[in-house]
């Protein structure tokens, strides 16, 4: 990793720090696809209710979308490296043997380095070339007409936006009536807690009265439910999903935390470069102290949220 050193870590592009971290968000992305009903991995368990019971059953879109040869329009918003799309296409191709030409998938992101990687993937990944479109867009002001998509996924997206509620409203606006919104947030971020531990061990660091995300309301199921209800959404289902990320060594895990360290130290001004690097060193020390010099793991809990636009 070319820019993984004390002098340059802040200059790395989103692509440079996201490459190699795809496995972190993929499991939640797959859960999101499953809970939305666009794919079905296991037979539905009728006794398995959500953390917050919904007024009716889990949104199940496979049964009422795409009939009569209609195209199913999907929006992977804040697509990153296409973690949601790649799993959707793989599932449609290999598991459910669904005809891909019934789907149209838009991958949108605001980051140029990620968009150019997505364009490469569009040419090389199986199944992508015919069904995907890639666009630069801003989640708080989508240049898309109302009522466009059957499904919209935002895997670990909204809490990162400059105005998360505006972003949520925009997503709901572009969904068709009866369309399904699926997004994930952190209920407990293992990397974030490790990072707090590492920062607390620094003798001094800048005071920040308004810490950046992840955190706050978006971590709480009741707030999420109330917010979605206030926007008129139905069939709200919010499930905690625990998962573990692994790395071959403490050093590798510390590198995988590039993005979260960058966000959390973003208001440290000129001290971010040097102190931020010390944070990576502390993270590595802590992991070695607690888990040894071999492979390490961090456990997190995501909230998998789905809801239907009436
Ligand atoms: C934590 S990553 C998640 C990526 C991907 N959805 C996944 O499943 O891993 C958040 C993504 O949202 C994108 N993003 C952040 N702010 C955005 C905005 N205002 N508009 C569009 N995308 C945005 C980032 O560039 C990044 O790709």
From TrEMBL:
Signal peptide: none
Domain of life of the organism encoding this protein: Eukaryota
Ranges for region Disordered: 46-65
InterPro entries: SAM-dependent_MTases_sf
Classification via Gene3D superfamilies: Vaccinia Virus protein VP39
Pfam families according to UniProt: Ubie_methyltran
Compositional bias segments (type: Low complexity): 46-63
Protein name: Methyltransferase type 11 domain-containing protein
Lineage: Eukaryota, Fungi, Dikarya, Basidiomycota, Agaricomycotina
């Amino acid at each position: 990793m070319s820019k993984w050193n004390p002098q340059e870590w802040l200059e790395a592009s989103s692509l440079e720090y996201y490459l190699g971290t795809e496995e972190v968000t993929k499991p939640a992305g797959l859960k999101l696809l499953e809970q939305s009903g666009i794919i079905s991995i296991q037979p539905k368990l009728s006794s398995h209710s959500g953390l917050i019971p919904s007024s009716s059953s889990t949104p199940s879109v496979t049964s009422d979308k795409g009939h009569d040869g209609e195209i199913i329009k999907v929006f992977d918003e804040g697509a990153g490296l296409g973690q949601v799309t790649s799993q959707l296409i793989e599932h449609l191709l290999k598991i459910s043997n669904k005809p891909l030409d019934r789907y149209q998938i838009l991958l949108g992101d605001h980051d140029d380095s990620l968009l150019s990687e997505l364009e490469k993937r569009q040419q090389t990944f199986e199944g992508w070339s015919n069904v995907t479109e890639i666009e630069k867009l801003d989640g708080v002001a989508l240049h898309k007409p109302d009522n466009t998509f059957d499904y919209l996924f935002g895997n670990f997206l909204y809490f990162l936006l400059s105005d998360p509620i505006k972003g949520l409203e925009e997503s709901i606006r572009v969904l068709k009536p009866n369309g399904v919104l699926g997004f994930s947030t952190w209920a407990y971020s293992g990397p974030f807690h490790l990072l707090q531990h590492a920062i607390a061990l620094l003798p001094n660091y800048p005071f920040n009265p308004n810490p950046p995300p992840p955190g706050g309301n978006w971590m709480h199921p009741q707030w999420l439910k109330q917010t979605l209800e206030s926007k008129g959404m139905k069939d709200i289902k919010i499930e905690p999903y625990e998962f573990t990320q692994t790395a071959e060594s403490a050093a590798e895990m510390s590198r995988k935390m590039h993005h979260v360290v960058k966000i959390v130290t973003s208001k440290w001004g000129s001290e971010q470069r040097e102190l931020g690097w010390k944070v990576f060193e502390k993270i590595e020390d802590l992991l070695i102290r607690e888990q040894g010099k071999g492979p390490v793991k961090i456990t997190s809990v995501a909230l998998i949220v789905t809801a239907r636009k009436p």
